[in-house]
């Protein structure tokens, strides 16, 4: 059996700050705020020398670690097609439903959101007039997309009058990520094994503030015990499934994640990817 030789890379975490005003909730603005109003009240810092392990052959099991890799039939899934929302609904999501349910043993999947990300050449900065500069960019700091409070606040809008019926079964909230072309060697997504996370000490609640809404998420403090994984040379026919919430286990297996720079090991066109957020029911 091949030995996993991890990459040494840089990952961005929340900076620990004993002087931060704890009376003010941490926030980050996703729009231009008032003049002289700070865009955030916490800092992100790079941590170097982080070991990044391969998911391939790792033996990681979804039921124990919240991470799984599934195959999907990507025939006819040219990257340009993903710019058409109607095609995503009719051409991509049905295939994704089958792949995810087969891999997880779920009976049903209900998608509530998806997002395309297209890295601009100037990333992480933005240059006016540059291709894809206005598109969503890869996310560089370790995070979890929801807190329990945030999920509970969304359930009525997701299910309406069917809420009690839908949530009477065991369910999970998951993310499904794939590059639009592969092998992906440009800012791939990486994942912390949640078993290596100390939720009390490592997770930091933050409001992501948009013009009309604020979403509560977790950013992550560095912990040398974190064990990081990624899927090397991920193909467009491979999706990574990772857990965000389980109706029986809460966020015990919620997977922190972010993109990272492969540096000398990277190559290829700027990354384009799609992430889908969904409920799966058992």
Properties at a glance:
282 residues; alpha+beta; 5-stranded antiparallel sheet; 5 helices; oxidoreductase activity; AsaB-like; Methyltransferase
What is this entry, summarized?
With 282 residues, the chain is of the alpha+beta class.
Structural description of this entry:
This is Methyltransferase. The chain is of the alpha+beta class and 282 residues long. The chain has a domain at 7-15 and 22-77 and 120-168 and 181-236 and 253-271. The protein is 16% helix and 33% strand. The protein contains 5 helices and 14 strands. The chain has a 5-stranded mixed sheet, with no helix packed on it. Strands 4-12-7-14-5 form a 5-stranded antiparallel sheet. Strand 9 (203-209) and strand 10 form a beta hairpin. The radius of gyration is 19 Å and the shape is globular. The mean pLDDT is 92.
């Amino acid at each position: 059996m091949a030995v996993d030789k991890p990459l040494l890379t840089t990952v961005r975490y929340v900076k620990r700050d004993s002087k931060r005003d704890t009376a003010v909730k941490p926030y980050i603005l996703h729009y231009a705020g008032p003049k002289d109003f700070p865009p955030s009240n916490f800092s992100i810092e790079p941590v170097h020398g982080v070991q990044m392990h391969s998911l391939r052959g790792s033996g990681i099991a979804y039921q124990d670690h919240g991470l799984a890799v599934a195959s999907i039939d990507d025939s006819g899934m040219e990257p340009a097609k993903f710019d058409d929302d109607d095609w995503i609904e009719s051409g991509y999501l049905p295939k994704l439903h089958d792949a995810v349910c087969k891999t997880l043993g779920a009976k049903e999947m209900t998608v509530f959101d998806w997002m395309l990300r297209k890295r601009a050449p100037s990333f992480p900065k933005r240059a006016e007039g540059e291709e894809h500069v206005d598109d969503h960019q890869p996310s560089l700091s370790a995070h979890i997309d929801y807190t329990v409070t945030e999920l509970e606040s969304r359930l009525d809008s997701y299910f309406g009058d069917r809420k009690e019926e839908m949530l009477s079964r065991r369910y999970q909230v998951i993310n499904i990520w794939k590059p639009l072309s592969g092998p992906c060697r440009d800012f791939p997504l990486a994942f912390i094994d949640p078993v290596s996370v100390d939720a009390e000490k490592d997770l930091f609640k933050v409001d992501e503030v948009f013009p009309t809404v604020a979403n509560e998420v977790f950013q992550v403090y560095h912990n040398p015990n974190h064990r990081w994984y990624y899927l090397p040379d991920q193909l467009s026919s491979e999706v990574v499934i990772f857990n965000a919430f389980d109706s029986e286990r809460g966020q015990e297996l919620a997977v922190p994640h972010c993109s990272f720079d492969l540096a000398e090991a990277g190559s290829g066109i700027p990354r384009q990817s799609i992430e889908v957020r969904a409920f799966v029911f058992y």
